[in-house]
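Teaching assistant here, posting this on the class forum so everyone can see the example we discussed in section. The complex has two components, and the goal was to see what a joint structure prediction looks like when all of them are supplied at once.
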Amino acid sequence: MPLPIPTRTSGNYAPMPVIGGHSVPSFLLRPATLPANMPADDLGKKIVTMLASHPDIATRHRGIDVSTLDDSSKRAMLDRINADLGIRPIRKRTLDFVRD
Amino acid sequence: MADIPLDAIALRDCRTSARVQAQIVDLTRDLAQVYIDARWWANLGIGYRRRDTAEDHHWLWYKKVGSFRTDHFVRSVAVQTLDKEIQGAMIYHLNGNSLLEPGEGAVFVNYLAAAPRNRDQLLNHPGRTNNSGWVGPRYRGVGGGLLTLATLHSYERGFRGRVNLQSLPGSEGFYRRQNFLWTGTEVDGMLVYELSSDQALSDLRSWGFL
């Protein structure tokens, strides 16, 4: 059940899509520890940051130094992580309608 | 673009009603300095008083982008049209906390802005003039496109599409229209909104991403 929202309006105009400029309270962000030997490539970084975001999944891959894996091993590891998290491949990479 | 799950979005050109495609690009400090900080607030045809009603008119995006450039959980992106102009920008974190589903992760949108030339609230008022004679916003769909990217990235990171943000008071209607829910949390006068996983997954399915 959505909570009732305090009434604040933006006048007669469409509200502006602008946010930011204020400090972010700590409860909105998770502190995450990353390994000292961070991989240099995007795929390796993605795996390491995903494991840091999902500690339960990370325990299944404990002891693996991602920075030492070759590309195909990294892809296989990411596939396993995605399967564990129920992530399916995204079917397209373009938003083809105007989301106003 | 590596790691970013969306390449392009559709915008509506308000002058012609035509649909145009805009690219999602990495927002670098150079791009921010040249195409946002130096251009967004120039030649808008509005006075200082009206400009000052926009909460972001003093932002320097190149500094914001620079301050996060070594953070592995932060992405800075922009919407760029064929003429190279930046129509909107967003900085978001991949290590957010969900407030609607405590214990779960979310993408947290820290900064998001459509270019001032695309904002009704700034432009649609009597007395505004500019060189082209057009007095309304230039493009529609920038904010919604950027939120779609945040939702997709949240899904791709295993957060089931959850996205949250602290809305400035003048923007709340926009996020409510995008199906964000108030989480019941208010910080320094700003309400924290979140796109629930159910809503996000339903949206991504109906839009053909899943």
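For the discussion questions: The beta strands of chain B are 8-13, 19-26, 74-80, 86-97, 105-114, 139-140, 163-167, 181-187, 190-195. Residues 88 and 114 of chain B are 4 Å apart (CA to CA). Think about how each of these relates to the inputs above.
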